[in-house]
């Protein structure tokens, strides 16, 4: 029995999210279907975490156990040959039998892409959030600086979250502007349900001048979800990278 | 009665091409439907030329006549408010009553986008042609140099073309490589049916080393469609810009 670790990219638009659900097309469901075909029995896949409907991944990480003997390169080829056009296995490596994609993750990066122009970019419409209002990147950077650090993020978490502990650490938030595109990078030890999208809603509100940057501090302190602004749409969000302590096994 | 000239962008993936056809979703059909609603009568739209199913436009040009009185800015707003998410009116201006989007066009630019990597880019899969084989850009540039100029392009034209005169002038072909992306720019006085996509098939064949660059000369001279390679897919192709002699009327 070998444990296989994969880095996976997917286009979230065609999926009802990562997690398997009956009667819905999900990333987990599609991958497990391919593995079941290869193994003639169900194979359970474990990911670093769920992503919602329409949310993309560039570097989702997952693992599964197999008795099929193949090199890592061959695994990558075999999986990509059978997966549909909106999932792509970026890399495969053989992992230690104690490796766990979810429990071992020590750092995650999400990115959020905004198209900030009155003009639509129709070719990117499924891959960024079109926000037509003028925004101040400086104001958003100031607001973001208050979110960095270790905080109770209750105010920035969906009420649907089942996590008891809402304390997380954000290591950095970078906001990069390239012409009409604004890319937000969030790096932290973990993120609550909808947390990046709720922070995005608030940052854009600040950028547009509807809240002052410093008001973010009050929202954090009051721990009241109703104070943070609306959740930004899923199709602008990318699970970009998941980091683990280095304990890989060579092929 | 005023003549309105529009620059229009569209994502070709959702259309059975530009030209109106019964029972098919076409760019012309969708735009004429919006205009009919605004005018309470059918309005005919004239474009610089057709584009095929899945072919995109960044700068298609069309004109129509109207009795509705609005500023150019207001026209842009009104049309975009009613058009679906895969068509975008980039600009509107009022044109001289003698202006004709098709007959007055003096220059056209098409671009073709290739993703040249063994790794798929799933987010761009509807917007470039994924060509996984190693290619020589230098060889393609040499082959392209033989296509530039005034030639009979019979060998690079679909047999379905109904044009008698197959002589066209290509002013320039530029090939730009940015990491995995290769962009081909074709500028000419006009292009025959499938001409850019057939040239692309041949250029990629040369790039991969299956034909010598100089063989393109022989294909041109023999005027035999069967010698040029297969037609590259439509979803990598963009009608980029159409140029007219300057005779615009101010709003």
From TrEMBL, chains A, B:
| The protein's Enzyme Commission number | 5.4.99.12
NCBIfam families on file = hisT_truA
Q: Which domain of life is it from?
A: Bacteria
**Protein's job:** Formation of pseudouridine at positions 38, 39 and 40 in the anticodon stem and loop of transfer RNAs.
Q: What CDD domains is this protein classified in?
A: PseudoU_synth_EcTruA
GO biological process: one example: tRNA pseudouridine synthesis
User: What name does UniProt use for this protein?
Assistant: tRNA pseudouridine synthase A
Q: What family does this chain come from, according to its entry? A: Belongs to the tRNA pseudouridine synthase TruA family.
**What does the annotation say about its assembly with partners?**
Homodimer.
Please give the catalytic activity noted in the UniProt record.
uridine(38/39/40) in tRNA = pseudouridine(38/39/40) in tRNA
Q: Which SUPFAM superfamilies match?
A: Pseudouridine synthase
Pfam families referenced in this protein's UniProt entry, alphabetically:
PseudoU_synth_1
Pseudouridine synthase I TruA alpha/beta domain span: 7-104, 143-245
**Top-down, what is the taxonomic lineage of the species of origin?**
Bacteria, Bacillati, Bacillota, Bacilli, Bacillales
What is the top EC class of this enzyme, as a single word?
Answer: isomerase
Q: Where does substrate bind?
A: 110
Q: Which organism is it from?
A: Priestia taiwanensis
Residue numbers annotated as active site = 52
């Amino acid at each position: 029995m070998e444990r296989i670790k994969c880095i996976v990219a997917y286009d979230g638009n065609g999926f009802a999210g990562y997690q398997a659900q009956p009667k819905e097309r999900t990333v987990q469901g599609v991958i497990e279907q391919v593995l079941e075909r290869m193994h003639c029995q169900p194979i359970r896949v474990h990911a670093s975490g769920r992503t919602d409907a329409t949310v993309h991944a560039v570097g989702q990480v997952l693992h599964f156990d197999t008795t099929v003997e193949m090199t890592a390169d061959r695994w990558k080829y075999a999986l990509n040959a059978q997966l549909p056009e909106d999932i792509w296995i970026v890399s495969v490596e053989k992992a230690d039998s104690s490796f766990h994609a979810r429990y071992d993750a020590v750092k995650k990066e999400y990115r959020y892409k905004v198209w900030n122009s009155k003009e639509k970019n129709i070719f990117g419409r499924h891959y960024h959030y079109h926000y037509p209002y003028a925004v101040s990147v400086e104001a958003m950077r100031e607001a973001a600086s208050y979110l960095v650090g270790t905080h109770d993020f209750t105010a920035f978490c969906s009420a649907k979250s089942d996590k008891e502990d809402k304390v997380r650490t954000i290591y950095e938030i970078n906001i990069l502007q390239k012409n009409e595109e604004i890319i937000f990078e969030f790096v932290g030890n973990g993120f609550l349900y909808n947390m990046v999208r709720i922070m995005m809603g608030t940052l854009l509100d600040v950028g547009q001048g509807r809240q002052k940057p410093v008001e973010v501090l009050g929202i954090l302190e009051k721990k009241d979800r109703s104070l943070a602004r609306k959740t930004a749409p899923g199709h602008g969000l990318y699970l970009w990278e998941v980091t683990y302590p280095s304990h890989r096994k060579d092929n």
